[in-house]
Specification:
- This protein is mainly β.
- It is 0% helix and 59% strand.
- It is globular.
């Protein structure tokens, strides 16, 4: 059972229970729940809540004002520590709106970073929505320019009531001039600084993290012909670009989806590389962006690293997305390696007949919580899925095999 359809309101809230299913391995499973309505509902990020639960943000074609798959609204779901829903809401206008990221404020509320697209003009602006732990909307701030569109990707809290966001800026209503946009704001929408970075080609950020020295690392993709390149940038605390690196895969495209900073100023990164069939990519970089080592992992057709984190004992846990020979079937995977990227354990989970697209992972003690999108062909449409289970420790045999690969690193053009 999914949630029933909500009435069309500017803000919709519902207290109810989500459905459960057990496609993950039951001996390790804590819970597996779906959320959604009569149309497509999807998520972008999961964060730990203020009370031991979780907040999920994304978009909804089922809830809010005039919902449809063509004009979704922003979607937020709050669940408790057992995955039971406490509330959900659909928030939007007459056009398209969605949330891509969330952060906890210093005063104990949530900030939701989103994008608002005005129908007709295709003008997109950033939105920052402040909500209480109970789902009450406290403030909505919109940020944008008159000639360009700004779209959101991720927000992180950096202390002292400040937050840094990354996204894209491009010429309004066109597909040109895609530059990387970064800005600092407070929870009232007051902008401290903005910065824009260009490379002569479209550049998209997928993750940003703050390093121990107060600088920021941003990873993503540089759209290039014939092959896309992975990109990594370091920003100063005021947004100044310190350096940028691109990484070219000789036999195809590559990109970074997520990063995890290290105490020495470097980072671990995950993403994908290859041609028509991609491989999950894991690498370690120095504080200057130089590659220390890289390991790839292959599956039936293709595999992508979506997110990664690290256990207290130094193991890396990578959330992967697997595609198979059957185009109607994809699954999620959990890959565990040591700090040198050597494969330790893995586990595959997902629908038995449908598509599973994982988004991100939270690790607590020796359990993990994953949020993603689930399209079960026997139970359309797209739903939001949250799963909590144990980190694999039994060396289970699964289809991901390590292989060796190389990079051709280069600096970003001036």
């Amino acid at each position: 059972m999914r949630f029933p359809v909500l009435p069309a309101l500017a803000l919709s809230l519902l207290f109810a229970s989500g459905s459960s299913h057990t496609n993950a391995q039951s001996q390790f499973l804590h819970y597996d729940r779906l959320f959604g309505g009569e149309n497509d509902d999807y998520c972008y990020q999961l964060i730990a809540g203020l009370d031991g639960g979780y907040l999920i943000v994304g978009g909804t074609g089922s809830y809010g004002p005039g919902p449809s798959d063509q004009t979704p609204n922003g979607y937020a779901i709050k669940v408790d520590a057992t995955g039971e829903p406490e509330w959900q809401m659909g928030l939007g206008t007459t056009g398209t709106e969605y949330f891509t990221s969330a952060a906890i404020t210093d005063d104990g509320n949530y900030l939701l970073l989103g994008t608002r697209v005005y129908t007709g003009s295709q003008d997109a602006n950033l939105t920052i929505t402040k909500i209480s732990p109970d789902g009450d909307v406290l403030a909505i701030n919109e940020m944008g320019t008159t000639t360009h569109s700004e779209v959101s990707e991720k927000i992180i809290a950096v202390g002292n009531g400040k937050y840094v966001c990354v996204g894209q800026r491009f010429v309004q209503g066109s597909s040109t001039d895609f530059n990387l946009l970064a800005l600092m704001t407070d929870d009232a929408g007051n902008i401290g600084w903005t910065a824009e970075y260009q490379a002569g080609l479209p550049i998209s950020p997928f993750d940003i993290e703050r390093c121990p020295d107060g600088t920021y690392l941003v990873c993503g993709i540089l759209r290039n012909i014939p092959y896309d390149r992975a990109v990594l940038l370091r920003l100063a605390s005021d947004g100044l670009l310190l350096w940028g690196r691109t990484y070219q895969q000789p036999d195809g495209r590559c990109w970074h989806n997520a990063l995890h900073p290290t105490p020495d100023g470097g980072c671990f990164l995950t993403g994908a590389a290859g041609g028509s069939s991609t491989r999950l990519m894991l690498l370690r970089c120095t504080a200057n962006g130089e590659v220390v080592w890289r390991h790839d992992f292959s599956a039936d057709i293709s595999q992508t690293g979506e997110d990664l984190t690290m256990t207290e004992d130094g193991r890396l846990v990578i959330l992967g997305h697997l595609s198979f020979l059957d185009p109607t079937l994809t699954s999620s995977a959990l890959i565990v390696t040591d700090s040198l990227g050597q494969l330790l354990n893995q586990r595959v989970f997902g629908p038995t007949a449908g598509l599973s697209t994982p988004r991100n992972i939270i690790l607590e003690d020796d359990t993990w919580t994953v949020v993603g999108n689930n399209l079960n062909l026997a139970d359309l449409p797209l739903d939001v899925e949250i799963i909590r289970s144990n980190v694999p420790s039994d060396a289970a045999v699964e289809p991901c095999q390590p292989i060796q690969a190389v990079f051709e690193p280069a600096d970003l053009p001036d």
